[in-house]
TrEMBL record:
This is Cysteine desulfurase. One of its GO terms (biological process) is cysteine metabolic process. Keywords: Pyridoxal phosphate, Transferase. InterPro entries: Aminotrans_V_dom (IPR000192), Aminotrans_V_PyrdxlP_BS (IPR020578), Cys_dSase_SufS (IPR010970), Cysteine_dSase (IPR016454), PyrdxlP-dep_Trfase (IPR015424), PyrdxlP-dep_Trfase_major (IPR015421), PyrdxlP-dep_Trfase_small (IPR015422). The keyword Transferase applies. It catalyses: (sulfur carrier)-H + L-cysteine = (sulfur carrier)-SH + L-alanine. Catalyzes the removal of elemental sulfur and selenium atoms from L-cysteine, L-cystine, L-selenocysteine, and L-selenocystine to produce L-alanine. GO terms for molecular function: cysteine desulfurase activity; pyridoxal phosphate binding. It comes from Cesiribacter andamanensis AMV16.
Amino acid sequence: MKPEAATVAPLDIAHIRSQFPVLHQLVNKHPLVYLDNAATTQKPQVVLDALTAYYTGYNSNIHRGVHTLAERATTAFEETRKTAQRFLNAAEPEEVIFTKGCTDGINLVASSFGRSHIQPGDEILISGMEHHSNIVPWQMLCQERGATLRVVPISDAGEMQMEAFDRLLTDKTKLVSVVHASNALGTINPVEEIIRKAHAVGAVVLLDGAQAVSHLEVDVQALDVDFYVMSGHKVYGPTGTGLLYGKRRLLEAMPPYQGGGEMIREVSFEGTTYNDIPFKFEAGTPNISDIVALRYALEWVEQLGKTAIAAHEQQLLQRANTLLQEVPGLRLVGTAAHNVSVVSFVIDGGTSL
């Protein structure tokens, strides 16, 4: 739902802007105005400071050393997991897996859960508004396993056609993977209804939260979603970071995604036993510095408040839509009733976002 701006204290935009060093420059002789947040967000100073603090103060490998720097680095790394648990309201920190981003998280689920659960004749259901990262891994899995990929069409308004969803959702459907909020249209999908209906036929649900987590309150327990992925770089954190939430019972039953490093409990040439979650899915030395800094990005968003962020963005979106409709030859694309702050349009002579 769209927030009621009148009930939310306005943000101090000048103060917020001052926290982003990259914006303190002229581009083409004008102060930089950055509108490409659907692709990646800029980073506030607190995130940059966290990166510097790690490399200048306690750069070390984690989970395997007993010296002071290793203990400090391990503590900082795991603090991010606790923050992520709170950010998504996971039941426990062990349900949070660190990844490189949404693409990595979706591929992890496709490779681990998919290969161990999807059988010939099964079906996977996605929507017509998905990003490549939520299409190609399922195509690859279906080709490998002899399954079928079904696509729910979208309306001219950019909304998922729920009548078609109901028709395509059958007892053959084993997994539903849809975007929470569209990166191109801004559409917020009716994920509660999607999850409820998918569970009714025994299917598990993955939500791609890349464009949702910086705008919307996400409570994975309230949603009862099985898997939820997000990218750190789209919520003011470093690139190469992300989170996969999964229900404990599913993660524990899934085989490892990659081998080596922290995912091992004991290893010999005769065989290997695997670590508990979340470490079972975090092979090798992770992206320690950026994961440490991700915590500060999540806390920065929490301090601003998603309700205040969303209210301000809705004001901008409404003003943008009003002014764009005055441009000759321009037609807005995607006019869903529930959306986040993305504007797509077609204009005579070309297409822009």
